[in-house]
Amino acid sequence: MSSQPSRPGPANPAAGPGSDRELRADARRNRERVLRTAQRLFATEGLGVSLDEIARRAGVGPGTVHRHFPTKEALYLAVAIDQIRKLVAEGEALATTGDPTALFTLLSAMMASGAENVAVKSALVAAEFDLRTAAPDVAADLTRRVADLLDRAQAAGAVRPDLTVGEVMALVAGAFAAIRHAGAETSRERSAHIARLILDGLRPR
Question: Which of 60, 94, 116, 159 could cross-link 102 (Cys pair, CB 3.0–4.6 Å)?
Answer without folding.
Answer: 94
